[in-house]
Design goal:
Length: 125
C-alpha cells in the first residue's frame, strides 16, 4: 500500500494502514532557485528548514542558481519566504522528481491522525 503525503487530510480505508504496517511515500520535487549571491545564506537556511537537499550550485554573473530536492508538502509557502529572504529578487521553479519514504515523524503524525478520525467516527455512532 502506498499513500502520498500531501497537505490536508488523509483518508485511507485499508487494514494495513490502520495496523501501521505500511510505508508512507511523499512526492519529492526538483527545485531550481535563482537569486542574487548576497542572499545565499538566507536561501540555504530556508531550503534546509524545508527538509531540502542541495544537489548543485553555480554562479552566473551575480546570481546563484541552486538545484535542490524538496518534499512537495514543504514547498507550500515557499514563494512568500523566498521573496521575503531575497527582498523580492529570488524566484524558483519546480517539477516532480520521485517518491521517497516519508520520515518517521511524518508517518507517525499521519497514523495518529487516522487513529483520531477513527476514534471520532466511533464516538459519533
Amino acid at each position: 500500500v502506498c499513500v502520498c503525503v500531501l497537505r490536508g487530510r488523509v483518508r485511507v480505508n485499508c487494514a494495513a494502514f490502520r495496523k501501521g504496517s505500511t510505508i508512507i511515500m511523499e512526492p519529492i520535487m526538483s527545485v531550481e532557485f535563482s537569486f542574487p549571491r548576497e542572499y545565499n545564506k538566507g536561501v540555504l537556511g530556508m531550503i534546509s528548514k524545508r527538509r531540502g537537499i542541495v544537489n548543485r550550485s553555480e554562479v552566473q554573473d551575480d546570481y546563484m542558481i541552486l538545484t535542490a530536492d524538496v518534499p512537495l508538502d514543504a514547498m507550500f509557502g515557499c514563494s512568500s519566504d523566498l521573496r521575503a529572504s531575497t527582498q523580492g529578487k529570488g524566484e524558483f521553479s519546480m517539477e516532480f522528481s520521485r517518491y521517497e519514504q516519508a520520515p518517521s515523524t511524518v508517518q507517525n503524525e499521519l497514523f495518529a491522525a487516522v487513529q483520531g478520525e477513527k476514534t471520532a467516527s466511533k464516538k459519533k455512532k
